[in-house]
Design brief:
alpha+beta, Alpha-Beta Plaits, single chain
């Protein structure tokens, strides 16, 4: 079977801490390499808020792994991820051969990117009624 490009996003339990999550990432990396996968990129995004609770957890350490592997190797990697206690959830996606690599995200210890504030001009003119229209919707 030919090697295919895959991307796996892994959510690790927050109680592992930074050191524990790095250990889990090391085990996952070793597992992938023993299955014959060639890892092209490993991004540790750090602890982030989840959109909804998973196993009563609101946060998780996010890790993105991009690699080339056979479909059988992917099945074995996913089987082992299911058995790992600290892994809350994972998602593997096959990438197109010509897809660009994932954009780098902030890693552990990185400062969060501040939200951009957009100020509105509040001059009080024309806020309630559209200009040139009467209340019945017809032009003046």
């Amino acid at each position: 079977m030919p090697n295919r490009r895959y991307e796996t996003l892994i959510l690790i339990h927050p109680e592992q801490g930074e050191a524990g999550s790095k250990e889990v990432v090391g085990r996952i990396r070793q597992l992938a390499e023993t299955q014959g996968a060639t890892i092209s990129q490993l991004q540790e995004w750090g602890a982030r808020e989840l959109a909804y609770p998973i196993d009563r957890q609101r946060r998780a350490y996010h890790v993105l792994l991009e690699y080339r592997a056979t479909p059988e190797a992917l099945l074995e990697i996913e089987r082992n991820l299911k058995l790992m206690e600290p892994v809350l959830r994972y998602l593997s996606v096959r990438q197109a051969e010509n897809a660009p690599p994932a954009v780098a995200r902030p890693t552990f210890g990185a400062e969060p990117i501040p939200a951009r504030v957009v100020e509105s001009a509040d001059d009080g003119v024309g806020d309630d009624v559209d200009a040139g229209m009467s209340n019945d919707g017809e032009g003046v």
